[in-house]
Amino acid sequence: MRDFISMKDFTKGDILEVLRVAKELEKTNEELLKNKIVGSLFFEPSTRTRLSFTSAAYRLGAKVLGFDSPDATSLKKGESLRDTIKMTEAYSDVIVMRHNRDGAARFAADISKVPVINAGDGANEHPSQTLLDLYTIEKEFGSIEGKKVAFVGDLKYGRTVHSLTKALEMFNCEFYFIAPEVIQIPEYIVRELEKKNIKYHILNDYKDVLKEIDVLYMTRIQKERFDNQEDYEKVAGVYIIDKESIVDKCKENMIILHPLPRVDEIKIDLDETKHAKYFEQAANGVPTREAIFSIALGLVETLKCEMLEKDIRKSVEIICSNEKCITKFEETENKYVVDKEHKYCYYCNRDIKK
User: Fold this and answer.
1) Counting Cβ atoms within 10 Å, is residue 201 exposed (0-12), middle (13-18) or buried (19+)?
2) N or C: lower Cβ tally within 10 Å for the chain?
3) What average pLDDT does the segment 295-307 reach?
4) Alpha carbons 331 and 239: distance in angstroms, whole number
5) How many whole angstroms separate alpha carbon 319 and alpha carbon 132?
6) Could you confirm whether 99 is annotated as catalytic?
7) Known active-site residue 49
8) What mean pLDDT, rounded, does the chain reach?
9) Which entry of 48, 63, 267, 328 is annotated as an active-site residue?
10) Do residues 32 and 326 touch, judged by C-beta distance below 8 A?
11) Confidence tier at 182 by pLDDT (50, 70, 90)
12) How do residues 197-254 score in pLDDT, each as one tens digit?
């Protein structure tokens, strides 16, 4: 059994195995999860992620229990996340969790006796979205290797972007980060790219690179992530694409992806063009999440890949400065990771300066 928490935990071989299993399961209706119970804990709103996980569970024969709003739970009475997880593990064989705190999924996995699948933790990561994104790219192009990918929109708070960048690093991809400075890609991700000598470009306009890129990955400007409403209003609606701005101005086989929901960043006149793949992308969430369930519970045979080892340490002095990290809200062991003289929070992946 294994958890699905961060793309930092996966090797390239691990990723390819998930995609292989997803491809096999897309062709079958085998009830691999018969007599299993999935605990579905969504502390934040969700449509595609929650429904596709539920669909995947039902298709594999499992039953699902849980909630889609913390307002209907004992959290309203002050129950801690720790206790919620300990209770849910007693009722479930696997836990799927979305939470608004960075690092909440890692915290849950540490205390749970059953596998935990991260369905999005704050502005940190969203590994199951990344795996379905990769599945979509592989289906469209036949390979992920060496693709040129442009991320457009909210790159600072966009957990889908953070996870997908980590994964695409392993496939020798080239990156174009297109955003206003206030929501540009975080420094810790750029530093990782530089350390690995991976090509990237920091830009503020997508139009000049349409003829170069294979994937245009649009994102929503996430109003709910901003601490300052004025900062949000400065960047709201800054990137809007439509049929006129894309068709005949990009590579013939370029695809447009979006983790959805969209607001106004993609006009509906693009939906019927050959470049628009975001609805197929969302549909690919079902076989991909079927594969995640099956691998998490050890119900399918997969190639044994080399496990990634981390230098994990504990300290009362070295503390994460991210105010939205789970360490600020739950009693944790205050862990951090050392990577070639660089330190980052074990839970939320943010840099630790001191």
Assistant:
1) middle
2) C
3) 81
4) 40
5) 34
6) no
7) yes
8) 91
9) 48
10) no
11) confident
12) 999 999 989 998 999 999 999 998 866 666 666 666 666 767 899 999 999 999 999 9
Active site residue 98: yes
- Quick check: pTM over 0.85? yes
CB-CB neighbours of 202 under 10 Å: 14
Sign of CA dihedral 283, 286, 292, 298: negative
Tell me which of 49, 84, 165, 219 is the catalytic residue. Answer: 49
Phi, psi of 160 (to 5 degrees): -65, -40
Q: What is the mean pLDDT of residues 181-187?
A: 88
Selecting among 126, 147, 166, 220, the annotated active-site residue is: 126
For residues 260 and 52, the answer to whether their CB atoms sit within 8 Å is no
pLDDT of the residue at 233: 63
Lowest mean pLDDT among 56-60, 112-116, 347-351: 347-351
Cβ atoms < 10 Å from Cβ of 343: 18
Single out the catalytic residue among 77, 113, 340, 354: 77
CA distance 282 to 9: 24
Which residue of the set 36, 98, 156, 289 is catalytic? Answer: 98
Written as six digits, the tokens of 330 are 């739950």
Is 126 labeled as catalytic in the residue annotation? yes
Rg (CA), the chain: 20
Mapping DSSP to helix (H, G, I), strand (E, B) and coil, where does residue 120 land? strand
